[in-house]
Amino acid sequence: MSPNGQEQSLNPSMAALSSLPRPLYGRVESLANLALAYRHSHPWAQLSYASQGVLEVQTAAGRFIAPPQRAVWVPAGMPHRVYRSPHTEMRSLYLDGSITTWAPPGCRVLEVSPLLRELIRTFSLLPEAYDEDGADGRLAQVLLDQLAAAREVDLMLPLPHDSRLRPLCRSLQAHPERQTTLGDWSQRLGLSEKTLSRLFQRETGLSFRAWRQRLRLLGALAPLERGERVTDVALACGYDSTSAFIAAFRQQFGCTPGEFFRE
Q: HTH araC/xylS-type domain: from which residue to which, for each copy (predicted)?
C-alpha cells in the first residue's frame, strides 16, 4: 500500500499505460520491479514466470509459489503482493481481457513446458508494437494456445479469513520449525482442540497438520533451488531427519527434491 493507503499500480512504466500496446504484451522485469511487497493490482491479467529463483504471489486467498518451470497467473484487478528470492529472473506477460476468455477466475500456478518456456522467453524480447499480422503475431497466437492448455499445479498455501486463525498462521509462517501442537494453540486461543481443528479445516480446506506440512515444504523450495543442503533445509523446516523430509516432499510433490528441480 502507498503511504496514503491507496492501492499502488504495478510499476511506473506500466502505470503510464492507459491500454496495452498489444492485447498480448511481454516484458523482462528489472530487479527493481521484482519485489512488490505492497498490495497492488493492474487492469490486465498477468503471467509471471521465474526462469531462475522462486517467485511468490500472495492474495487474500493464499500464497502461490512458482519455482523454475512454473508460473503464476494473476487475473485482472486482483490485489496481490509479489515476493522473490534474491537471484530471481522474471519475465511477465500482460493480457487484455479480450484474449483471456478461456481463463478460469482466481490466481493459479501453472506448469511451464519446455515449449511454453521458450515461447515466453522469445516473446518477452519482441518490440512493444510487434506486427500482429506477421510472424510475431503468429508466435503470440501459439503462445496463447499453450497458455490455455497449461496444466495447473498445486503449489498454493490457502490462508484463512477468520481472525482467530490469522495470528496462528502468521506465527507458523514466521517459525515453521517450531513444533507447537494444535493442542498448544487451542489453549492459547481459548478454543477446544476439536473446535479449532474444525475451524482450520473449514477455512483452509486442510487439517492443521496438512497445512503446516504444506507450509514447510513450500518454504523449502527457495533454499533448495539455491543449492542448500537437503539436510540443512529439512532441519530449518522442522523435520527431525532428512529421510522424514524427503518422504514428506515425495508425498506432497510426487518426487524427491533432486527430481523436482531436475524437471
A: 166-263
